Amino acid sequence: MFNSYLTCTKFRFFIWGFSSSTATVALTLVVFAVISGTTLANVISDASKLLIAANDTTAHASCATSSVGSAEALVSNLFAAINTAKCELTNASQWPADFADEALREGLEKYDFVIVGAGTAGSVVASRLTENPRIKVLLLEAGEDPPIESEIFTLSSTLHHSPYTWTDFGEPNPNCCQGMQQRRCYWPRGKMVGGSSSMSGSIFLLGNKEDFDRWRLLGCDKWSWEEMKFLYEKALKASQHEVVDKPVGTVVLNQFDHLEEHNELAQLMLNASSELGLRYISDLSDGTIVGYTDAIPANIEMGRRMSVAKTYLGQVSRTRPNLHVIKKAMVTKILFSSDNSRAVGVEFILRNRHRLKVATMSEVLLAAGAINSPKLLLQSGIGPSEHLKALRINQIADLPVGNNLHDHGMLPLILKFGREINLPSSMAEPQSVADYFLRQTGPLAASISIMGFINTNASSSSQYPDLHLVSHTIVPAGTADSFKFLQLRDEIVAGISRAADNKSLLQIYGSLLRPLSRGKVRLRSADPQAPPLIYNNYATESADQLTLLRYVRFVQRMCTTAAFRNYGLQLLHVPIEECDRLPYDSDDYWLCYIKYLYIGAWHPVGTCRMGAYTDSHAVVDQRLRVRGVNGLRVVDASIMPEITSGNTNGPTTLIAEKAAVMIEDDWKEELT
Ligand SMILES: Cc1cc2nc3c(=O)[nH]c(=O)nc-3n(C[C@H](O)[C@H](O)[C@H](O)COP(=O)(O)OP(=O)(O)OC[C@H]3O[C@@H](n4cnc5c(N)ncnc54)[C@H](O)[C@@H]3O)c2cc1C
Which residues span the membrane (predicted)? Predict the structure, then answer.
């Protein structure tokens, strides 16, 4: 999920069909503004100025009447410097070389391990396994290297609905996403090296100590908090003690740069939360988090994304002859031995044209993410027998693949300002662009990220929060139309605009940290190219609805603090016809609101659930081996039995770290 400026306001940046049309350019600039929490009005005006200049052919004619050359040279140098810096950002050498041409020319040898998906998990596992030069790995990725908008992380929202995204929509469900276009939830994931972490908000959290205690109670006793913390420290340590002759994968963590202008909003939120008795969190990695903070660790360096794909994989792959990476390689099937007992390789389509097979001597490792890993298992005959039978897919194993789909989800609440607040300068200003490319500073390199972890259950003083408050971004007066980026239906956006009454708005999103509602992933058809069926059940369990109700009441309590009253902040009544038949502010009203506006947080997990041998809901065992077959593991976010308390990229990185250790351990004798 995007957070704050970027991460949490994600739903506002959808750019459908990012084209070069005038309207789209203007829209894009508006999106930049929303991402950064900057002044939409300023950006719209910047956008119109730029567009007028671009369309005005006389602009060039009215250039300086004469020059002896030095001024022209300076301007040309500036353009050249910016252009060089831009190219440097997308320098191919930061990503693995593509082995595809060689594979087509000479065919593929056998590998010890074939990994499907070069997202977060695939990058980490490939990197760790190939630290041992005797282990030969092939990494297959459906996408290509990330484009420049992924590098400039404040622009990554513009990757939505592009070829770099798997753009899937959930099946209609009358109980959720009713306020969205076509009444369907949106399920994007990254389709490029780095996977979803190449388009994410870059927030890197560990989760709560109790998350892993719960995993233990579910029979996963090898997955304790202590173990996760150990892996986390191992990952960080690598960066602090770089070994020059043997580079190691590592997690780069920095806080987002804040602009001076961000401080007023940060202070407002921190003051209000403090009035409600919430402490300031200075260390989000200590495993017990209740409170509010603007100190958020992210995979960022100097305004650039430093995904684990870049640091673990990109930085080492070109020095490792035992690691081959093939891009634009869409894996369509896992291949099994003649008695169906062992995975022996995979089939894939290269560059949409060439159908290839590759064999593995040890294992196939699935790291295609929580939607595509179960999809691939189902396509290959591992899944619920009735579903496979209906699609006439030869069954290899009857397992609950695709069940247990869950996500944090997000409920936007909109508040109206009684008076104006400071807004950061625009990303679209030429000065901002120059600052970013020449010095990696300014609005394009900075972002405000504020988050709160609260325990909405008043009867409990536990440090185990049940709600994550994210986003906290301002929608300046007159720009409520930008809520279209939430993919809300037109009449709802128009209603927000009317209710805003030309005042600036503050939006806050609440995410369930421990949702109980579960959906599932299934196949639409036996054709591997067909998009999956995603049955989302956001907040259909009444316990989830009650937590969200308590979140609404919490934000209402925030409105009573001196900090909020000072800005005249009040909840906006969003007109929704069905809900407005109920008394406003009653519990029933808010339950109706939840049905319309509780939407995805893009943190899918759980679809290849890990569990004990006795757990009939488990797809993989504690060593991540798919039950009932040999030579096959799932090593990504799908294995989480329950989602962790916070953004999921950090835990997925650590799952992959642990997977690599277990795989090496299991093959120690054969591979030494
Ligand atoms: C827009 C967005 C914002 C997010 N923001 C944050 C955030 O700020 N912080 C955070 O912690 N988490 C965030 N997340 C979630 C986080 O990115 C994921 O939890 C994490 O990336 C999951 O890692 P993974 O390896 O399981 O899957 P992914 O990273 O999605 O990787 C899967 C990879 O497999 C490839 N693949 C899929 N199918 C095939 C196939 N058949 N053949 C070959 N390759 C295939 C995909 O192209 C992709 O590269 C965000 C997610 C999204 C979508």
Answer: 12-35
Nearest residue (by CA) to ligand 1, atom 12, is: 649
63 assigned to some structural domain: no
Mean pLDDT of 284-298: 90
Element containing residue 273 per DSSP (H, E): helix 263-275
The predicted-structure confidence for 43-93, as pLDDT tens digits, reads as follows: 333 334 444 444 444 445 567 678 888 988 999 999 999 999 998 888 999
Following CA atoms 40, 42, 43, 47 in sequence, which dihedral angle do they give, to the nearest 10 degrees?
140
- The closest of 19, 17, 13 to 34, measured between CA atoms, is 13
pLDDT band at 425 (very low <50, low <70, confident <90, very high): confident
Ligand 1 atom nearest to 156, measured from its CA: 1
The predicted-structure confidence for 97-148, as pLDDT tens digits, reads as follows 999 999 999 999 999 999 999 999 999 999 999 999 999 999 999 999 999 9
Q: Is the pLDDT of residue 545 over 70?
A: yes
**In a shared domain, residues 457 and 546:** yes
Residues 391 and 417 in one domain: no
Known catalytic residue: 603? yes
Best residue among 150, 197, 521 to mutate for probing ligand 1, ranked by most atoms within 8 Å of CB: 197
The H-or-E segment that residue 139 falls in is strand 137-140
Q: Which of 532, 558, 588 is a domain's end point?
A: 588
For the chain, the C-alpha Rg in angstroms (whole number) is: 25
Report how far ligand 1's centroid is from the alpha carbon of 544 (Å).
25
- 334 pocket-lining for ligand 1 (C-beta < 6 Å): no
Question: DSSP of 520-553, one letter per residue?
Answer: EEE-SSS-TTSPPEEE--TT-SHHHHHHHHHHHH
User: Ligand 1 mean position to 122 CA, how many Å?
Assistant: 10
Q: Are residues 377 and 477 in the same domain?
A: no
Q: How far is the CA of 474 from the centre of ligand 1 (A)?
A: 28
For a substitution probing ligand 1, which of 14, 169, 200, 305 has the most ligand atoms within 8 Å of its CB?
200
331: annotated binding-site residue? yes
| Sheet strands (E) in 388-490 | 411-416, 451-454, 467-475
Q: Quick check: CB of 2 below 6 Å from ligand 1?
A: yes
Whether ligand 1 lies within 6 angstroms of the CB of 407 is answered as: no
- H/E segment holding residue 267: helix 263-275
> Which residue range is the domain that position 111 belongs to?
96-250+307-407+603-671
In a domain? residue 130? yes
pLDDT band (50, 70, 90) for residue 621: very high
The answer on pLDDT for 403 being more than 90 is: yes
Per the model's pLDDT, the better-predicted residue between 385 and 262 turns out to be 385
Distance (angstroms) between ligand 1 centre and the Cα of 116 equals: 13
**Ligand 1 atom with the shortest distance to the CA of 637:** 26
**Strand pairing category for 254-255 and 186-190:** unpaired
Check the annotation: does 603 bind a ligand. yes
The CATH number of whichever domain residue 454 belongs to comes to 3.30.560.10
Tokens 């340590």 belong to residue? 237
236-258 per-position pLDDT tens digit: 876 544 444 444 558 888 888 88
Same domain, 196 and 285: no
364 annotated to bind ligand:
no
CATH number of domain containing 104: 3.50.50.60
Instruction: Please indicate whether residue 51 or residue 406 has the higher confidence score (pLDDT).
Output: 406
**Inside any domain, residue 81:** no
Band (pLDDT 50/70/90 cuts) for residue 40 is: very low
CB of 636 sitting under 6 A from ligand 1: yes
